[in-house]
Design a protein that fits this description.
It is built from 1 helix and 24 strands. Strand 20 and strand 21 form a beta hairpin. The strands form 6 sheets. Strands 3, 4, 7, 8 and 9 form a 5-stranded antiparallel beta sheet that branches. Strands 12, 13, 15, 16 and 17 form a 5-stranded antiparallel beta sheet that branches. The chain starts with a helix and ends with a strand. Helices cover 7% and strands 39% of the residues.
């Protein structure tokens, strides 16, 4: 006997709820082992950015950071959509504690289409040029994934802002042997012409071509001069100077001075060769001397003076490499006076004083 229509409907309902209970039981007690509690969505959001840093560059404050690689569980971050950079400011030269509630959004950097900031490889940067003197600015940044929800905050970085010092005038540069002497006009005012009462010193920057500016003075200089002894001969170096003022615990650098390019040169000749000996042989006059200890030796030049002549003649068109030479052009019956000089490998080809003469009658 077939069940009536209402009975069939009740049976289907009971079957549906029975299957639902089975599925729930399998989900809770099935073969996947111990059941873990659900993970909070907040924990899979991006962790804090890496290497968050702040620097003054000319008339701007520049923020830079590296992409986070982990989520807040410490697991590899798989989805990253962008960054939001926040800023707050307070009057004075120090960051006020507890200003976090006053942070406002400064920039939203969408990695898919970054309209602001710069993204290069696994790093992002933002240049903040909207700055007012007499304020201290603080920054923090957080990454976000799909949906735009922010991950962990970075640490807070701060910097005071004010009128920049006047840039130093063009430096003078005098090159020597493995050294450069620099000097420049003293700076005593700000860019607006007012006296700089919080002068901190000078910084010297150097670069080779091509290359980026590198600060070469670890400490601030209190006088407008510097001797750079960490240079190589025959290499062009370009220098520029910045004046620096104190702003509370911070420093504010001027714009760049005009640059100056100079090349240090090897001005020191090798020592003269020693113990020159001249001996007549069947091939000519054979010369020998002690090797030069100069580390930059390029070779030797050999000179011959004939008795009665006014000046010696150089016998070697190019420097000879070994402390040995045979004069095959000597004429029998003549008295000759030989000398040898050492030459270095610099562009100037610095030449030593002559050795002591060695006389011989051929």
């Amino acid at each position: 006997m077939l069940p009536s229509e209402p009975c069939r409907r009740n049976l289907n309902v009971r079957r549906f709820f029975g299957l639902l209970l089975v599925f729930l039981a399998l989900d809770l007690f099935g073969g996947c082992g111990k059941k873990e509690w659900p993970i909070s969505p907040d924990l899979v959001l991006p962790g804090p950015v890496k290497d968050f840093r702040l620097s003054q560059e000319g008339e701007s404050l520049v923020l830079r950071w590296s992409f986070p690689t982990l989520n807040q569980l410490g697991q590899p971050l798989t989805q990253l959509e962008g960054f939001r950079l926040y800023r707050c400011d307070v009057p004075g030269t120090a960051a006020a504690p507890g200003c976090a509630p006053e942070f406002f959004l400064l920039a939203d950097i969408d990695l898919a289409y970054p309209k602001v900031g710069q993204v290069q490889g696994e790093e992002a940067a933002y240049r903040d040029s909207n700055l007012a003197p007499g304020k201290c600015y603080s920054y923090r940044v957080a990454a976000y994934g799909p949906g735009g929800e922010l991950g962990a905050w970075s640490r807070v970085l701060s910097h005071a802002w004010g009128i920049l010092p006047r840039a130093p005038g063009a430096p003078t540069a005098k090159a020597g042997d493995r050294e450069v002497q620099l000097s420049w006009p003293e700076v005593s005012t700000l860019r607006d012409g007012k006296p700089m009462r919080d002068f901190a010193g000078y910084l010297v920057y150097r670069r080779t071509t091509p290359g980026d500016w590198q600060r070469i003075t670890p400490m601030l200089l209190m006088v407008p001069q510097y001797q750079d002894v960490a240079v190589k001969n025959e290499v062009e170096y370009t220098y520029m100077i910045r004046a620096v003022r104190h702003l509370g615990d911070y420093f504010l650098e001027s714009l760049n001075s005009p640059s100056r390019t100079v090349m240090a040169q090897d001005l020191t000749p090798p020592p003269p060769p020693l113990n020159l000996v001249a001996v007549p042989t069947s091939k000519g006059v054979e010369l020998r001397w002690e090797p030069s200890p100069a580390p930059d030796l390029a070779g030797y030049r050999v000179y011959r003076l004939r008795a009665g002549a006014a000046s010696p003649v150089r016998l070697t068109r190019k420097p000879v490499k070994q402390p040995y030479f045979v004069d095959t052009q000597a004429s029998p019956g003549q008295t000759y006076y030989y000398s040898v000089t050492a030459v270095d490998d610099s562009k100037r080809a610095n030449e030593s004083q002559p050795s002591e003469e060695a006389a011989v009658r051929y």
